[in-house]
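Run log, item B.
One chain of 74 residues. Sequence copied directly from the ordering sheet:
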Amino acid sequence: MTRMRTTAPLLLAAGLAALAVATVRDAGCADPGHYVPRADGSWSLVGGCVAPGDLVVPPPPPPAPAPAPLQSRS
């Protein structure tokens, strides 16, 4: 039983690693892209297989209503 407890996670990890390698190999992307530094100190991804239309961006939430002004009791 102890041998199975130590062997099963290793076999599972090896299987998942093989699946990850096969997925990346068969992704079908000829240009994986690369990062280039920008003038402002940040980095930008150039190339790659993801087009801006492939990204799903949710619409921004509506603005919160303005709080009612407080009335003073004088």
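Observations after the first pass:
- DSSP finds one helix and two strands in the chain.
- Residues 66 and 72 are 18 Å apart (CA to CA).
Flagged for discussion on Thursday.
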